[in-house]
Structures are given as structure tokens and as C-alpha cells.
Amino acid sequence: MQSMQPLRKSFSAFSLQSQIPSATLSMEVSYIFHSHLIGRAGKNINRVMEDTGTRIHFPDCNRIAGEFKRNSVVVCGPIAKLENARQRIRADIPVEFIFDCNIERVNSIGESSLSDYFSKTFGVLMRFYPKIDGVSCQVNIRGQQDRLQLLKDAVTYFGRVTHTPVDSVVMKVETSFDHVWIARDHIDKIITATGAGIRCPDVSVLKDLPKKYCVWIRGSMDQVYMASSMLNGLLPMQLMVKIPSDRFNRHLLGRAQNMDVMFHVEHSTSDILTIRLSSYEWNTRNLFDVLKCCLELPNNVAAVIPSLSPTWLALADITQHSSFLQASQRLLSLMSSSNNSSVPQQSSTIAMKVPRSIGTSSPDSSTTNSSPRFANESSIPASLAASRFDQNSSRHLSQFLETIGLSHYSDLFIQNEIDLAMFTTLKDEDLVSVGIRSFGARKMMLNAVQELRR
Fold first, then answer.
1. For position 436, what pLDDT does the model report?
2. Can you state the angle between helices 284-295 and 79-92, rounded to 10 degrees?
3. Handedness of CA 246, 353, 71, 398 (dihedral sign)
4. What is the DSSP track for 25-86?
5. What percent of the chain is helix, strand and coil (3-state, nearest 5)?
6. In whole angstroms, what separates CA 244 from the centre of its chain?
7. What highest taxon heads this organism's lineage (predicted)?
């Protein structure tokens, strides 16, 4: 009997884990790094998905020339595995330092010779951009997060070889309106904490917004990296899960507010609620804690212990007097009062509408807003909007299924919020879980997935 106890405990733990619903995590990563994260033929991102047991989706629109580029990366899977995937994605994002160099010194050695040597010796990517004055050129040296010291050594050695001062470098952070809006109140404090200089785009006038949102950071390599890390901690992040409406606990609204977590509820169907939790990425621990409370999970199940950058610890004090909730509500008030219709795609409000009468009002009334502009529009950040599947991509999936004679499954994918991009990540067990029982149909779909990936 004693030999059966470990087996019973193991089975009990497996039973508890199997009852945990999947959730969706939306994070923001500059679109310029998406191809790096995906890798050639999807090799990099497929490895991350296999290692973490999650599905990761990048916006379809980023593949189309001329289309607005989105920074969102969406991860779907069991709660405990979402955090592992977030950490892997964040660790795989490159770090790039920029500085100017005399072009004659570069030409005397040769760009290709320098690039090859530094690639083999330090494992970095080097690019040269001659300036219009014909005297200087911009040098970009890119390395990996987990080999940051090698990147710093490469910059230092390049300065020595080419007689270039590298005491001051620059980092360009291409980000979104959402990020700039919620981070702008904290820029001065980050400058004070790190000693770096930061130039941030002006988003105070919604009718006169820039086309791109680039933050420039200048200082020593340590100062620049620390400042960029703090700015990353202020990126918006969202968790989403669906629960039966009779399990919704209104007391969680107050708890979420105390944790600086924005709590948005909407009716998916008459008896299913979609819960969206948003905050700064450095506040990941509280986001997962509120999510576990929403699902009424015991403490010993799906424990999530986020691995946060040491520089993010200072953000608790920096954001103390200007929280995520306050920044979001200010934007919503500003847009409502000005009735601004010229706000671009990337700024469809960070602020989440907090339901005041869930359970006592109709499904329609729980998702409306006092401003007509939001009557039929969710107020999720555009940078996080990919947590809702892409309607255009869904239509493309329906058309694709029709071409292979499986159009009768289109409604099933729509009900499960699976678009064409998500379809290409599915495995056989995923198809079974969404309700496709026919072996022949699943085989045809899996063959189609392989073709689409190629």
C-alpha cells in the first residue's frame, strides 16, 4: 500500500493540472525583432513552443508591405507555461548599441573584415551606415541578452581598433503609442536612476501624433542598457481567460485595483465571461495572482513565479504615484472629452472598462461605455489587441478550408477564435481538442499546416 502512495499523489497532481484552463498572454515586442524571434522557417519560435508547451502567434499584418505593423506577441497555453514562454521570448530579443565612427578608419580595415572578425570572436552582428557628410558612419553592433558582456567587450574592442571613443553610445527603441503613453510620466525618474539621457516622442496632443514611436537613449553602455531594461518593464501586458459567468467574483475588482491591475469583463456568450487583466510587464506577479483568483485555483496549483529583471525592482517606487490604472484612465477621459476620431490605429485606448454591475445587468450593458465612440469597440490596447483573433485572418482561413474541401469546419474554428496564423501552429491534439474527430480531416489539415509553414 505504501508503494501506491507516490502514484496516488502523482495522479492527484496530474488530475488538478488537467482541470486548469488555458489562458492567453499578450506582450509587446518591437516588430523589427519578430523575424529574429521566429527564425528561418520558424525554427526558433517552434523550438520555444515545443520547450514551453505553448502556442505563439505573431500578427499577420506584419507580413504585408504597407500595412501598419503591430508589436503584439500572443502566447496561448496552460497558465504556468505562459510565464516560461514570456521569459524565453524576452531573453531572445537582441540588444543593439549605436555610435559614430570615422569612415576612413573603417575603410582602412574593411567592413567585411571587421564584420567577420567580430562575428567569430564575439558572436555579434555588425552593420555600417555611411552618413551624408562622407566623413563618418553609424555603426550598429547587435548581440544577445544572455551574452551581454560579450557585446560590451565587442564595442570596447572596436573602439580600440578604430580609435573611436565609445564612452557614449545610443540605443533606439521602436515601440508603440501605448508604451509611450504609460511610460512618459516615469521618464524623468528613469533618467535620475540610471544617468542616461532619454528622448521620448510627444503624445500629449492626440490630433498631432507621430507616425512612429521611437525612444532614443544615450549614455554609457551600462546606463543605456539599464534605462532600456526599465522601459521594457513599463511595457503593457495582458492576460486573458474565459470562465463561466456564475463563477465571477465581484470582490476581485477591488483586489485587482490594489495591485494596479486593470480588470475588464465582457460577455463572450450568455453564460461565458472573458476576463482581461492588464498592467505593466514588471507587475507580472500580480497579474498571475489575480488570474489565479479568477479561476479559483488553490495555491499549490499552477504556481507562477515570474523571473523579473533586477532593474525592474526599482519600478515599484518609480510608478508608485502614477500607476498603470491612472495612465489608462487619463487617456480614456482625454479621448472621450475631445471626441477625437483621428487617433491612429495603434492607440485604441489602453484603459479597460471596469464593469459596475456584472450579474445584475444584461450582457449588452456590461460591455458598453458612456462615450458613443466605444459603443461597439473594445478598449484594449492596440498593442495587445492580438489577444482577439484577427477577423481578416479568420476569413482567409475559411477561404483556405474551402479550397481543400473542408469548409464545413469553418464555424468550428471561428467559435474557438482560431485564425489562419494560429491555424499554422496547431498539432493533432489541438485539432481533437477543438472538436475535429475525423482522422481524415485532421490528416488533411496537418498536411496543409506543413505546406503553409513552408
1. 87
2. 160
3. positive
4. EEEE--GGGHHHHH-GGGHHHHHHHHHHT-EEE--GGGGSTTSPP--EEEEEEEHHHHHHHH
5. 50, 20, 30
6. 27
7. Eukaryota
Give the list of residues 6+ apart from residue 403 with CB closer than 8 angstroms, or none: none
Whole-number pLDDT of residue 50:
95
**Arithmetic mean of pLDDT, 341-364:** 39
* pTM of the full structure: 0.72
Most confident of 182-186, 304-308, 375-379: 182-186
Q: Which residue has the cell 540605443?
A: 171
Cβ within 8 Å of residue 19, ≥6 positions away: none
Cell numbers that stand for 5 in this block? 502512495
Cell of 394: 479568420
Rounded (5°) CA angle 17-21-22: 110
Residues 445 and 185: their CA atoms lie apart, in Å, by 49
C-alpha cell at 147: 551574452
Domains in the chain (CATH in brackets) are: 391-453 (1.10.150.50)
By the 10 Å C-beta count (0-12 exposed, 13-18 middle, 19+ buried), 201 is classed as middle
Q: Is 295 helix (H, G, I), strand (E, B) or coil?
A: helix
Q: Residue 255: what residue type?
A: R
Q: What are the C-alpha distances in Å from 233 to residues 56, 257, 348, 415?
A: 21, 19, 21, 34
The residue type of 171 is M
Q: What is the pLDDT of residue 5?
A: 54
**Number of H-type helices and E-type strands within the chain:** 19, 12
**Angle (nearest 5°) at CA 115 between 161 and 46:** 135
Instruction: Let me know: does 231 contact 215? Beta carbons within 8 Å.
Output: yes
Cell of 157: 574592442
Work out the number of other CB atoms within 10 angstroms of the CB of residue 51: 12
Query: Which range scores top for mean pLDDT: 61-70, 77-86, 346-355, 366-375?
Result: 77-86
Cα–Cα distance, 55 to 85 (Å, whole number): 9
Q: Are 305 and 286 in contact (CB under 8 A)?
A: no
Residues 286 and 126: their CA atoms lie apart, in Å, by: 39
Residue 163, all three cell numbers? 580609435
Instruction: Return the higher-pLDDT residue of 162 and 314.
Output: 162
Give the containing element (helix H, strand E) for 392. helix 391-403
Q: What is the pLDDT of residues 383-427, one digit of tens each?
A: 333 334 455 667 778 878 887 888 888 888 887 778 787 788 888
Set of cell numbers at residue 247:
463563477
Q: At which residue does the C-alpha cell 476576463 appear?
A: 275
